[in-house]
Amino acid sequence: MPLSTSARADLVLVLVTLLAAAGWIFSKEALQGLPPLLFIGIRFVLAGLVLLLISRAKWHWLKRADLLPRALLLGVVMAMAILTWIQGLDKGQHLGEGAFITSLGVVLVPVTAWLIYGERASGNTLLALPVAVAGLALLSLNGGFNTDPGQFYFLAAALLFSLHFTLMAHLASEMPAVILAAVQLLMVGMINGLVSVFIEPWPEVVEAGIWGWLLASALIATSLRFTLQTYGQGLAPASHAALIMILEPVWTALLAALWFAEQMSAQQLLGCGLIFGAMLISRWRWVRGLVMKRAS
């Protein structure tokens, strides 16, 4: 019996969240042999080139003088977000914790949209924010003020990702998703690679295994992930897709526990739970609609 469109969308998007979570593991392993910014530069240039090659039929969009500068600006914002995220990944001690902090960007998107475009934040968002802040406090104040330095980078990344998501919403409908992603990925790779040239020492020799993790990050966790995400989002409403994408930090925490034997204290687990709850609260209208649809 063939799967329904809705079921296919669910399966594809759940797979996307798993690939995104796996990307945290791939990246952490690659950082054992590559400087953070050099790694990001190579990873995103490779991923961007792959997407550009598979979207040759849409290259004429790159000639749109009204859209390309905005796409490049999005790439700059994304590059800043990724730059801070990779620093958090390099300096942080807990991948799962970092994933939940970074996911605060989802909660902050409506606030950013209000600050930039004057869009009113919903009551659910206003309710979710203090819950998210409480969760972040439990993570950050575990054992007092001896904060993991990676948390500050992850929080900065969350703020920048919320800005990127907000700006993206006003351009994504005007430009093919694959071309828009390719431009942004290439910008991320080139900017981080350029910064790396000036501030990072490059290793003389890189083990073959590190190159394997790099390729997995570029081809599986970036190019393949985005291709599947584009396909899945085409099958499901945006609200439905966004709800499923909330699973990413959950998978990341589970994979980190399995791969790196990471452990969290009860306080840290509660903090992650509150942040996850804040994401659900901020999207409560979608959660309720999805539940009612499944029940009918």
UniProtKB/TrEMBL annotation:
Subcellular localization: Cell membrane
Pfam family, one: EamA
Key words, A-Z: Cell membrane, Membrane, Transmembrane, Transmembrane helix
Transmembrane segment boundaries: 37-55, 67-86, 98-117, 126-145, 151-171, 178-198, 210-228, 240-260, 266-286
Domain EamA: start-end pairs: 9-140, 150-281
InterPro entries, alphabetized: Diverse_Substrate_Transporter (IPR051258), EamA_dom (IPR000620), EmrE-like (IPR037185)
Main subcellular location of this protein, as a coarse class: membrane
Domain of life of the organism encoding this protein: Bacteria
Membrane topology term: Multi-pass membrane protein
GO cellular component, one term: plasma membrane
Annotated protein name in UniProt: DMT family transporter
